[in-house]
Amino acid sequence: MIKNGIKIEFAQFADAAEIGILSKNEIEYGLGWKYRPERIVRLIRNSSKNVVVARSDSALVGFGIMSYQETQANLDLLAVKPGFRRMKVGTDLVQWLEKVALNAGVFNVFVQVRERNADAIAFYKHLDYCLVDRDKRYYRGVEAGVLMAKSLRGMLNFHSEPG
Ligand SMILES: CC(C)(COP(=O)(O)OP(=O)(O)OC[C@H]1O[C@@H](n2cnc3c(N)ncnc32)[C@H](O)[C@@H]1OP(=O)(O)O)[C@@H](O)C(=O)NCCC(=O)NCCS
């Protein structure tokens, strides 16, 4: 998918190092580094996950990782490089992953966000995610998290036949 010069596509193994660094700096800061490049490679190989990247020309400017289960999906990680924010890159990544989920028959998507990450909470609210729960020790026992969820049913297009 190409929109406004930004292309969304499946990640390659060669993207793993950059994805890992983005995760460390933009998502996992202060928590230790779990999503190292070798783990990202395993996720790219895992058929129940989708690892996607946003590119501007050939440069990686963002990524998202979604896990799919039978009836629900979880948005595990999402980040856009600071210089490319507020340009709808995050929106394009999430909508791409949501469409895949919907095509797979998944109707509910969940995402966990640090409670202090007001920017991300505002972003997910903008995409119609609702706050559903709070866990004061969600982030490796040290930080409160909120659980947000969205029903994808509203994305379904119903075409009624005349007569
Ligand atoms: C959260 C994040 C992915 C958003 O990506 P983005 O590409 O900048 O988001 P978009 O441009 O698609 O934003 C769409 C809308 O969401 C809302 N939004 C996005 N960032 C926002 C912010 N910092 N403050 C308030 N609202 C925000 C706005 O309504 C925005 O529309 P607008 O720009 O027309 O006002 C990005 O800020 C990021 O990578 N943050 C660090 C990592 C992170 O927190 N990840 C999420 C938790 S895993």
Summary, kept brief:
The protein has 163 residues and is α+β, with helices and mostly antiparallel strands. The chain is 28% helix and 37% strand. The termini are far apart.
Sequence-ordered SSE layout with sheet pairings:
Elements: E1 2-3, E2 6-10, H1 16-27, H2 37-45, E3 49-56, E4 59-68, E5 72-80, H3 89-103, E6 108-114, H4 118-126, E7 130-139, E8 143-151
Parallel strand pairs: 5-6
Antiparallel strand pairs: 1-2, 2-3, 3-4, 4-5, 6-8, 7-8
Helix pairs in contact: 1-2
Bound molecules: coenzyme A.
Would you write up a description of this structure?
With 163 residues, the chain is an alpha+beta fold. The protein has a single domain, classed as Aminopeptidase. Helices cover 28% and strands 37% of the residues. An 8-stranded mixed sheet has the order 1-2-3-4-5-6-8-7, with helices on both faces. A hairpin with a 3-residue loop joins strand 7 (130-139) and strand 8. Helix 1 crosses helix 2 (37-45). The N and C termini lie far apart (36 Å). The relative contact order is 0.14. The structure holds coenzyme A (COA). Coenzyme A (COA) binds at residues 26-27, 77-80, 85-91, 113, 117, 119-120, 122-123, 126. Coenzyme A binds at residues 26-27, 77-80, 85-91, 113, 117, 119-120, 122-123, 126.
